[in-house]
């Protein structure tokens, strides 16, 4: 095993980073097929994109600090999950290139 390969080796299950707790309960299966990981990431990122696009053209945008904080939280959770999934996908693709 080369030093580069050793750095890319991942545990089978990786906790998502958006949920801060001592005992992780939401995990990514790093050995899932790459297309499944990519689809899961794309789904989350598209959901946030569609929500934000709809809000930007809506005549009745949500008002109030609490509503905006809740919307921001939902968007950040979905985007963080998507980024975590894309990170695993990238690492897996790099592993394939090195083999």
From TrEMBL:
Protein's recorded name: Short-chain dehydrogenase
Domain of life from the UniProt record: Bacteria
